[in-house]
Amino acid sequence: QVQLVESGGGLVQPGGSARLSCAASGISFSLYAMGWYRQAPGKQRELVASITSGGSTNYAESVKGRFTISRDNAKKSVYLQMNSLKPEDTAVYYCNANRFGGYWGQGTQVTVSS
What we know:
Structural class: mainly beta
């Protein structure tokens, strides 16, 4: 059974930082491309950042220079370091594992507000 479990969300002040983690089980993690998506109220889910099995990364324009995605294959985990957070970063953040099909975590809420 595949499980992706996100953690690390919460309430953050504007300009602050947060680190999201996603722990995977039930998949050959190192073979999967991993991604972080987010969905704000009333908006479609969007890609925030992704990292291939080889370590190549890709970012949405809105987070370039502020967010960093990384992975630890030994721990079967992917991370999203978020710096200089803005209120518009408020959303539910989802972890995704993709190879020939995709798996999703349950999501973690990030709220950026003073």
